[in-house]
Amino acid sequence: MDPSEPRNVLEVPEGSQRGSVSSSVTRHPEVLVYLVNDTVIQVSVESLTALTAGELARTVRESLQLPDQAQEIFSLWLISPFLELQLKPKHHPYKVSRQWPDLLYRFTKCSVDEIVHDEPSLQFRKNVFFPKGKELQIEDEGILRLLYEEAKFNILEGRYPYDMEDCLKLGALTCRIELGPFNQDQHNLALIREKIDTCLPTHLCKKHGGFLAAFRSRGAKQHGYEEELLESFRQLVDDAAREEPETLKLHYRSYLEKCHLLRYYGSAMFTGEIDKPVQSFLHRNGRKIVTIAISLDGVSVMDSKEKCVLLTLCFHELSWEYTSSEDEESDDILWLEFDGEEGGAVVNKLLKVYSKQAELMSGMIDYCIDFNNTFEVPPVQDVVAAKPPRPKEKRGKLKRQNSVVCNRIQQLSTIDYVEEGQEIKRVKPKRAASFFTRQISQGPVSYTAVEVTETLEQG
Fold this sequence. Notes:
Elements lengths: L9 E2 L18 E5 L5 E5 L8 H11 L6 H4 E6 L4 E3 L6 H6 L1 H8 L4 H6 L3 E6 L14 H16 L7 H16 L9 H7 L6 H4 L20 H15 L7 H12 L8 E8 L11 E9 L2 E6 L4 E7 L4 E5 L9 E10 L2 E10 L3 H18 L38 E7 L2 E4 L8 H7 L15 E2 L1
Parallel strand pairs: 2-6
Antiparallel strand pairs: 1-2, 2-3, 4-5, 4-6, 5-16, 7-8, 7-13, 8-9, 9-10, 11-12, 12-13, 13-14, 14-15
Helix pairs in contact: 6-11, 7-10, 7-11
């Protein structure tokens, strides 16, 4: 979550001066836990330093009157505009928050001033390791509502890129949930226009206005999505006639089912940069800021500015490597290898992701694969061992499409190579001493993930 203002994990009682985690000394401090919709759960505790995330989460669940099933579905997170960390039940939120400056220094590019002034907030939200397939088995309306609120937030903020056609369907469900059954007399364009920012992603709606709109003829009709959203809302009346009974629980589940089609639903979110493809004869490229989403389904790399997917792969479609930088000023690197094409020939492509969070990402991938193998949700191929020979039936080609949820390989600057026996032949050499040169000098190529240690999960 990217709140507009940092919010304190801990507050003193009402009427007293607001204090931060590190400075509050009240006898019975008030811990504030936020939901995604900014609802605040206030908890009075006796021993702040001894309080575990598991104990605090239980208190929040009791306050929300959620059943015991919610224990495995939701977790506590420490959130700031710069870093998002999922806490394990045994973690102590107060102690972790005291370490926040060190975490920012290690895992972000924050300036000294940003590190000094950044203060995390506690948030109660979905556990990244709860399989989305099990969500459809949930019957409790309170749990489904919280999952719906979180999914809607991620859709509206562009954290879950989705095409407008699908966003209209989700927006219609939001109208039904928040405005009630469609009523032709009450639900008109004026009302929808007021509510549209709470139903559709703002960044998609704005793409049809702005500077270019000034060049349109004055008599031309300005395109908006109010009519499309109203029509989608109206269509729910006919669709609901086939469903008995029509309940909020049904609409929550329908919203989640549509979001489940996205591989990055329920992902942990990381930040990084990738090389831009070389442009013009001056060979200017630079870097593009990206969001790396890692879930139990796979890994997705998304353009943080354009809100679209650049690359999305299941775990069995990729190999990865984490390399740390010896220079403190340089970022660590997460290498993602996958199949592709170059000039009609099948090649291996390697994407270089620069990030101070590369170690966290590598550990997250490793943990997700182990989790899937243990619980068989879903079964995946083992990609931790040495890279196997290319199968006789090659993997599906990553096609170029206009959809924001499809791969955009042409926008990636990758190292392309083919294997010839025990050697690696680069298709387009881009550097004198490459990752592959180092690998060859050390023997046969293998891809091994970093072992998971007692760390925090990020999202």
